[in-house]
Amino acid sequence: MNKNNYESEIQKIRQETSFTIALVGNPNVGKSTVFNHLTGLGAVTANYPGKTVALNVGMAKYQNIYMGIIDLPGTYSLGSVSEDQFVARQEIFEGHANVVVVIVDATNLERNLYLVLQLIDLGFPVVVACNLMDLAAKHNICVNTDKLSEYLGVPVIPMTATTGEGIEKLIETCINIFQQNVKMKANLPVYGKDIMDHINDLEGIISQNVKQIPFGLSARALAILVLEQDEEFLNYLTTSLHGPAVYDKAKAILEEIERTHGEKPAIRISRERHGYEGFLADKVQQIGVCQVSLSTKLWRFSLEPVTGLPILLAGLVAVFLIMYYCGGFLSAGFDTLWVRFISPYIKFLIFAIFGHNTIANTLLWGFDAGIQAALSVGIPYILIFYLMLAFLEDTGYLNSIAFLTDSLMHKIGLHGRSIIPIIAGAGCNVPAILGTRVLTTRREKIIACTLITLVPCSARTAIIMGAVAFFAGWKWAVAIYLIDFLVGILVGRALAVFLPGQSSGLVMEMFPFRIPRLSTVLKKTWYRFKEFIIIAIPIIAIGSLLLGSLYETKYLWYLTRPMSLIVENWLGLPAVAGICLLFGILRKELALQLLLALAIVQYGPNVQNLLNFMNKQQIFIFGLVTTLYIPCLAAISVLIKELGWKTAAFITLFTITLAVVVGGLANQALNILHLI
């Protein structure tokens, strides 16, 4: 990348963001980890003009504020010894960044503070990110970051970049500094008296004679750079208007320092700075047993892949067992109450007004069976899931899941945070799609919404458990989940490759586990459940009326003829199953009841369960196809609301095609292998 392209990339970042942050620090202190947390995949690599060293440039968003992030090469100081150091030095001096974040290693604080002191000496707006705090605790190194902040006069943020702990606080601090909500006045490093006197003398001479200092540096900063014998600034003094006079006086001071201390001034300044960083390290860190709370220990266990993944798996199993057993118990109880105390009065009222005819029977589909089915799924399954979801959110565990899955999500064009609405889709796809509003770009929303439609919601879980697991065996129910997971990964990867654009990073709050408040959990649950009631139930009732009218007027059976090639020949299902798949878009949660009802009409009253007219393989294929295509009309309506009708139509047709293709391939494979 030539200089013009490099400058245009930097200029583009500055135009599209509110302000820019430069990440600087010694090699191997976690700069790249911080950068990846902030920017995700929304990064470009820019080669510094004239150098082989590359810079990473990206954008991040936090609370509707866009920030440019420049990841500088690792450097121990601002000297220009190597290409890496030169690039880091020039980026800082040229002022592309509004805030300079210095990332230091908490396990080796003394060595890392040198760069911090140098930047403060030169007057740059510095924020210190004290990284690897978890590793320091394991080595019994306790760092008092508040005390270090008092000594330096700049914010010091304790951080563990690998888990994201402290990232949000770091960004909030940078925003406050940029917006001048915090007045920062750094404490200038204190060196030996003779060196301080020389700095003050040279500062006064520069103030009087040099009117314009390069890069907008202060007179004190230039005095220190001259005493460090920085070639760039010594050359500047020899060529500027009044510089030669200043250079002569500076040369006399340099000679006096060398004569007094027996070493070059640059070495003496470096020694003074190293001495001061040693003093600071002694004051702010202790070697001993660091106290870590139980919640923090548990939280860190949840973030380590070795322990975190088994915990995640156990948690998912627990969630679905609670949903299945508790939801099933409540659903059965609710159906009993509806049949005994509500349904008779609805039937009495409708028959009294319309009589016993087709119109009355159609109305019963919507106002009796339709609402009953919606509530028997909504209250037992969705309400319980939202209750558990709110609980997990407030404990902080969902953020641990987001961290554990972050690397996987990046491969499909998303970031870890997007796993939360995808998980929510296991309750109901409708509010999960609405939850994608937290994502930054339209590309991310399209990918996430498509994947959410593939997540088995509680209605589809009822079909998998109530039909496949019950009649074909639990192994085949597990097989459907595994196939669905694999299909989701492949679809996400394909969308990430073919959809234009890049995914941006999203700063996510990371905090140790905490005890949730019951009132907050209940409020969150009710807010989400209310959205389900408002959006989903009216559509389900209207869809039930449409389905009922087709059923009662016998037009429903005409739909089996054009579908026979796909349903009977490709999928290997009976014709009545094809009708249920078609109208499953209206109301998935009634697919089993509708299938059995239609079977009774076609095959006679002796049909008592699915095995009377379908074999185990057909039940498995029916459950697989039902799981993969678009969940319901309510989901389609919110897709239109969030993404527009064209994208919603594409996702709908895509998932239907996908379900037919995967279901047909599975059917052909089972015909050959005879596994069921």
Give a verbal description of the structure.
This protein has 676 residues and is α/β, with parallel strands linked by helices. It contains 29 helices and 10 strands. It has helices at residues 3-16, 31-39, 83-93, 109-121, 133-138, 145-152, 167-178, 193-209, 219-227, 231-239, 243-261, 265-284, 294-303, 305-354, 358-395, 397-404, 406-411, 419-424, 429-434, 442-454, 458-472, 474-498, 518-552, 560-570, 575-583, 591-603, 616-628, 633-643, 645-673; strands at residues 19-25, 43-47, 54-62, 65-71, 99-105, 126-131, 141-143, 156-158, 285-287, 505-506. Strands 1, 2, 3, 4, 5, 6, 8 and 10 form an 8-stranded mixed sheet that branches. Strand 2 and strand 3 (54-62) form a beta hairpin. The mean pLDDT is 81.
Report a brief summary of the structure.
This protein is α/β, with parallel strands linked by helices and 676 residues long. The chain has helices at 3-16, 31-39, 83-93, 109-121, 133-138, 145-152, 167-178, 193-209, 219-227, 231-239, 243-261, 265-284, 294-303, 305-354, 358-395, 397-404, 406-411, 419-424, 429-434, 442-454, 458-472, 474-498, 518-552, 560-570, 575-583, 591-603, 616-628, 633-643, 645-673, and strands at residues 19-25, 43-47, 54-62, 65-71, 99-105, 126-131, 141-143, 156-158, 285-287, 505-506.
